[in-house]
Write a structure and sequence with these properties.
mainly alpha
């Protein structure tokens, strides 16, 4: 009888060990998937917005997007939703449209020949688009 008890015990231990190995492999797969997702660096506010170069940017659309975000910020501020204001401000400052309009404003005004603190002048379309 003892021998049967020992065999059952060994089988039970082997079964538990097998279950632990399976759980470990599943955990390992989940960690690998998570690692791959973190490597992709997905942004909440896309930085290229599908544009290929500076000359193809739809400036009316950029302006409209910025105005909508600014209107939403004002509305949230009036309603006292300060968390929403902060989130919308972050979205605005990280959006492609706002960055592109800022670069356009700086490179097309009267002081466009003056370099900034980085001593670089953006005179070509490629330079403007890649900065």
């Amino acid at each position: 009888m003892e021998r049967i008890g020992v065999e059952t015990s060994l089988h039970a231990k082997a079964g538990r060990l097998l279950q632990m190995v399976i759980r470990y492999k599943k955990l390992e797969e989940l960690l690998n998937v998570r690692k791959q997702m973190n490597d992709m660096k997905i942004s909440c506010a896309p930085t290229n917005s599908g544009h290929e170069n500076w000359d193809n940017i739809n400036w009316n659309r950029c302006n409209a997007m910025i105005r909508k975000l600014q209107a939403r910020i004002v509305k949230a501020q009036k309603e006292g939703r300060y968390g929403k204001v902060k989130a919308l401000q972050w979205t605005l400052t990280h959006s492609f449209s706002a960055k592109a309009m800022a670069v356009k404003r700086v490179t097309t005004n009267k002081g466009n020949k003056t370099s900034g603190i980085d001593k670089i002048i953006w005179s070509t379309s490629d330079a403007k688009f890649n900065q």
